[in-house]
Hints:
By secondary structure, the protein is an alpha/beta fold.
Amino acid sequence: METLDLNPEDLKLLSAQQAWHYRVLPQRENGHLLCFTDHDSDCSQMKEELEMLTGMDVVLQVLPQSTVTKYLNKHYLREDNTQLANDRRIGDTTDFLDELIGEAKRLKSSDIHIETYQDRCRVRIRIDGLMIERYRLGKTEYPAVINKVKIPSGLDIAEKRFPQDGRIHFGNKRDKFDIRVSILPTLHGEKVVLRLLNNGATNISLDTLGFSTQDMSHYLEGVKRPNGMVLISGPTGSGKTTTLHATLKLLNKETRNILTIEDPVEYTLEGINQVQLKEGIGLRFAPALRTFLRQDPDVIMVGEIRDVETAAMAIRASLTGHLVLSTIHTNSAWGTVSRLIDMGIPSFLLANTLNTTVAQRLVRLLCPACKKEATFDNSLYPRNFTPYTAVNRHFVATGCDECHHTGYRGRAAIYEVIPIDGALAEKIKHNEHNIYDNLTKRDIKTLAENAFALFAAGQTAIEEIYPLLYNF
């Protein structure tokens, strides 16, 4: 199969419907338009029609059908496949921003990046954790695009020297959701990142997130207690917020008063009192927690423990008979304990309040339609890693129309859930770090073990779990 390096600007010469109808891929070359096609019969009529559509002299070059189909699926995404076409020039319509946001939503993208460099500008979207370029913009068009973002966000279009943050309430015939807007001045102009927030929580459930039966049992044991803390750790974009909101959905009963302080509010949950962080007016996590304690809460959710003041208030809330759920940035579930102690939380208080600590990651899943089986070589493991079971065959990503030729489709969460029992509470009090013998005795699976199980089952590739593989 031939490899084509197609310019997104040239691809805009044809709409998705036109490209698929004629089965062509346009590319400017030496003053004419070179169109790659898989038609090998008389194409004189098609050539004339393409010249009328584009206003350029057209030269046809025949390629294998598989190659043309691959690149049509990659660059001209179709509505009937929950996809959109890369077929708009920015200056052609005032609805470019709406169409861009609608496209990103349909492709299940989490973020839109609008960036400018010395000689070019581009739009990228993040799908399944990876960035994909969708558009290239002209330098003269770029300021107008930035203003189209700033105006509905309530931001100052004259201010180009300082970062700005805003929010867009987006709505069309299909969707209604919020978008968090961040604008950053860079060397060549302002960079915009739009975070698409999933306001609806109807589709999230703990049962569908990826907990094993044992991990689910340990997690529910912690969240069903009337007081204490449940902490979820992991990097940005690992699904911590989704897990927390699925937990709140489970706990949301008429008999409970649930309060949350979040930055931003990503899911709206009926029956839960949700507060949006506003640092500009002093509404931060710690002051909000202080007020929450006077609101007769049963369950409190804190978006993130960022500093010692927030950590201290969370401990205080859990000591006074409330269940506190929150997130923290650490590499492992047990690393949460060390982080809080380093922040200055007394170890004896932490031992008495921590119910459960969880580590979470998201791993891309191989596309079931095109993954291929191959012989596995143990040299693909990280150095010094000892596999938990022998793997002789594994699956590798290839790419097809179903997965837009990425080889992956969807993601799954993997967890490390450590319930704090009496023995671990004693280790916390004495600030002991070596607890993995205790976990082995209790048959508690680590992140590495759960990631390896996903790989051994043929659901993901070794490249996806490589950073998580380690032995203690």
